[in-house]
Design brief:
With about 775 residues, the protein is of the alpha/beta class. The protein is about 30% helix and about 20% strand. Strands 2-8-7-4-5 form a 5-stranded mixed beta sheet. Strands 9, 10, 11, 16 and 17 form a 5-stranded parallel beta sheet that branches. The longest helix is centred in the N-terminal third of the chain and has 30 residues. It starts with a helix and ends in a 54-residue tail after the last helix. The N terminus is likely disordered.
Length: about 775
């Protein structure tokens, strides 16, 4: 082969290689060229500061199906200081499906990119500083180019760019929701809204309770509230027979706060609107708010009437009475107050005809409560503890609504709100700083789609705003309608979560105290005052009259709402304790004068006075300060209402002394119910009593000595001679009227044969006459 031929072959081979290389390059270029009319744009930095703001105001449809066009409406506004030349808007779709909630966040923050350009809208320019324009970008169904398989449903990234020429000067990112088939799993979603009021205080005796009351004002016995502005008298049924649930009207300052909170656009007014327009929302109500607003000003009464009617057709749960700060109660070591609040709420439900409404506790702050706080759910008889909504940055995955917390050997059912979804409901910009209502709806749908796809058995999800939330009714109802329409979402009442098994386990915090909660000492002061009042009520057979409103008063300053006004809370605590002490001061003992106790046993009288409106049965207890005087127990004393009674007390004296005596009243069970009184007693047993005892003792001693002396002496000599002389005396007495027959001569002629004369012819002395002394013969 010649050299020329070899050179030709080399040249031809080089040409072939060059053509092949060019072909490869061309094919590669064709592979990355976007569709006709599109240009390639790199993803901007997530930290870029844009001179032009982009707000997506509508994504139609919210859930995109095959064969449907996608239309995105946005507002472009020049926030910079210079005009934007050649402005335009570009819509780009990412066709990579996010798999996790972290992927969603990465897309929104600019961590992921899309190089396709799917729609362009021109803007007449230039766009001057402060000027804004609305654009509409539509992607035909044929250009969506998303797979239509059964398992490819879910969110896709969507970007709207504002451009100056080819330069990106503004951007907003959101999502479209692709749904080739409606045959998809569904996640149960519940929305719980706390219906709680501003700080409230009942009208205590001695305050100007009627100053701001409406005409025909509220009765303090808890009867049905006054008529509302609509003329309907059944604004809210209030309990009347149970002392725990009895309702007193709010004080004037509380009436003013209720009137303000129920004004148009304020929180309570917005809550009422939301409940009226969103049947899927479950209301978690403080019964004290409904009861007291029905007894307040005209606007609050109207609000209470409206909400009560709406709740009759809604899923309702109850907070304990006055929505007590359960953390403060727990740290004060008084679970009895939680029990009282739960019992009052259940009593209200029974009295108002609401039915068997479950009671739940609701935490505060953003931290999981400690074990002591969560454990109060058992004391309050609560069905569950609603945990606080955490910071959205703490939630990486969907939070299962049903959980449980183990505390003190007991497992407490708990409901855990999903942080990201709850903040998308209440404050979307805390999740996406530039969020609009439309992008918040799309993000919520995307979050739930990812959560549903991640689990073979999708978890229940709870959205639970905090107590201070003022709902944007238009946005909230739009979001809830989107959830209702999404096939992968089932809206369920919150009460349905109380019946299922826990899906996760939550750990309690080691300590979750807050500087704003009521100090433990104040909690204990309130509880002690309540205990004294309950013990005092045992003195009467009509305790309802004494206990009406007691729990309402004690629980009022414990409300979470008082955290915002600690000075007012301190004043309310002092007023409540003073009122409860006044309730227990109607029984007294009239101060007796100095007593003189004469004799070993003396009865004295003391007077028991009852200033209460109910009859009482009390025990009078008298205690001398020294053992020289003893007071015998007294039988229980019955005293009529507003009456007094004299009581006899028997004192037993043991020695002369001066003694101070204390007396007080107790219940039959021994609880003190009156202040003690003190008086002096002078104890002097009488001289007569002492002399009688001495004489009796001496006589007894003399008798004993005489008997002993007689026994020891035996018989005397005189006594023996007398006995011998008596032995020679005749053994028989003469015959009455004659002489004894001695056996001598029959008659010496001197007798009269049966007369009563002696042997010498003189009359014989009468029988029984002592013998005459012997005559001495005359010696002459």
């Amino acid at each position: 082969m010649s050299a020329a031929l070899r050179r030709g072959q080399v040249h031809r081979a080089a040409v072939v290689l060059l053509v092949a290389a060019l072909a490869v390059l061309c094919l590669g270029t064709l592979a990355v060229v976007p569709p006709a009319g599109a240009t390639s744009t790199p993803s901007p930095s997530p930290t870029a500061t844009w001179p032009v703001s982009v707000q997506v105001t509508r994504v139609t449809p919210e859930v995109l199906r095959p064969g449907e066009d996608l239309t995105v409406t946005a507002t472009i506004r020049n926030d910079g200081a210079e005009a934007v030349a050649s402005p335009s808007a570009v819509l780009r779709i990412s066709r990579v499906r996010p798999h996790t909630r972290a992927d969603l966040e990465a897309w929104v923050s600019g961590g992921l990119s899309s190089r396709s350009t799917d729609a362009v809208a021109g803007i007449e320019g230039p766009l001057e500083p402060g000027a804004s324009v609305q654009v509409e970008l539509t992607v035909p169904a044929a250009d969506i180019r998303l797979a239509d398989g059964a398992d490819v449903w879910g969110p896709r990234g969507l970007t709207v760019d504002a451009r100056a020429g080819s330069r990106v000067v503004g951007q907003q990112r959101t999502f479209l929701l692709w749904l080739p088939s409606d045959d998809v799993p569904a996640t149960d979603v519940s929305v719980a809204v706390p219906v709680v009021g501003p700080p409230l205080a009942p009208a205590l005796p001695g305050t100007d309770a009627g100053a701001d009351q409406p005409a025909g004002g509220a009765a303090t016995d808890g009867a049905t509230g006054p008529e509302t502005d609509t003329g309907d008298a059944d604004a809210v049924p209030s309990p009347s027979s149970s002392p725990a649930a009895a309702v007193s009207p709010p004080d004037p300052s509380s009436v003013a706060r209720l009137e303000e909170a129920t004004a148009t656009g304020e929180r309570l007014a917005q809550l009422a609107r939301l409940l009226g327009e969103a049947p899927a929302v479950s209301a978690v109500v403080d019964p004290a708010l409904l009861a007291q607003s029905a007894l307040a000003g005209p606007r609050a009464r109207q609000w209470s009437h409206q909400v009560t009617q709406v709740l009759a057709e809604r899923d309702v749960l109850s907070l304990p009475w006055s929505d007590p700060d359960v953390a403060a109660v727990a740290h004060g070591g008084r679970p009895d107050l939680a029990a009282a609040a739960g019992a009052a709420a259940r009593s209200w439900a029974e009295q108002s005809g609401t039915g068997d409404v479950p009671v739940v506790l609701w935490g505060t702050g953003t931290r999981t409560p400690d074990e002591a706080t969560i454990g109060l759910a058992t004391n309050a008889g609560a069905a569950a503890f609603v945990l606080p909504t955490r910071d959205p940055d703490d939630d990486e995955d969907a939070t299962a609504a049903r959980t449980q917390v183990r505390t003190a050997g007991t497992t407490v059912a708990a409901l855990a709100p999903d942080a990201v979804l709850t903040h998308l409901l209440t404050d979307p910009r805390s999740v996406e700083p530039d969020a609009s209502p439309a992008t918040a709806v799309q993000r919520t749908l995307a979050e739930l789609a990812v959560a549903t796809r991640q689990e073979s058995d999708p978890p229940d999800v709870l959205l639970a705003p905090d107590r201070e939330w003022i709902p944007d009714v238009a946005y909230t109802t739009t979001l809830l309608r989107a959830l209702e329409d999404a096939p992968w979402v089932r809206l369920r009442p919150v009460s349905s979560l109380l019946d299922g098994m826990a899906q996760t386990r939550t750990s309690a915090s080691d300590s979750a105290s807050d500087a704003a909660e009521m100090p433990p000492a104040q909690v204990q002061v309130l509880a002690a005052a309540r205990e004294r009042t309950l013990a005092f009520a045992e003195v009467t057979s009509e305790p309802e009259a004494l206990l009406t409103g007691v729990d309402q008063e004690v629980l009022a300053p414990l409300s979470v709402a008082w955290r915002a006004d600690r000075t007012g809370r301190d004043a309310l605590v002092a007023a409540v304790v003073a009122d409860l002490d006044a309730r227990t001061s109607g029984l007294t003992i009239v101060q007796p004068p100095t007593a003189n106790i004469f004799g070993s046993s003396t009865d004295a009288r003391m007077t028991v006075r009852n200033a209460l409106a109910v009859p009482v049965t009390v025990q009078l207890v008298v205690a001398p300060g020294k053992p020289c005087l003893e007071a015998q127990p007294v039988e229980p004393v019955e005293v009529d209402a507003r009456d007094e009674r004299s009581v006899v007390v028997r004192f037993v004296a043991h020695a002369n002394c001066e003694v101070r005596v204390l007396a007080h009243l107790e219940t039959v069970d021994g609880a003190p119910v009156s202040a003690p009184v003190e008086f002096s007693a002078r104890v002097q047993p009488t001289i007569e009593d002492v002399g009688t005892v001495v004489v009796g003792v001496l006589l007894l001693v003399g008798l004993v000595l005489g008997i002993v002396r007689t026994v020891r002496r035996g018989q005397s000599a005189r006594r023996g001679a007398r006995l011998e002389t008596e032995s020679d005396a005749p053994t028989a007495l003469g015959v009455l009227g004659g002489v004894a027959d001695t056996g001598g001569a029959a008659d010496d002629g001197g007798g009269d044969g049966g007369g009563g004369h002696g042997r010498d012819g003189r009359d014989a002395p009468p029988v029984g006459t002592p013998p005459a002394p012997p005559r001495r013969e005359d010696p002459s």
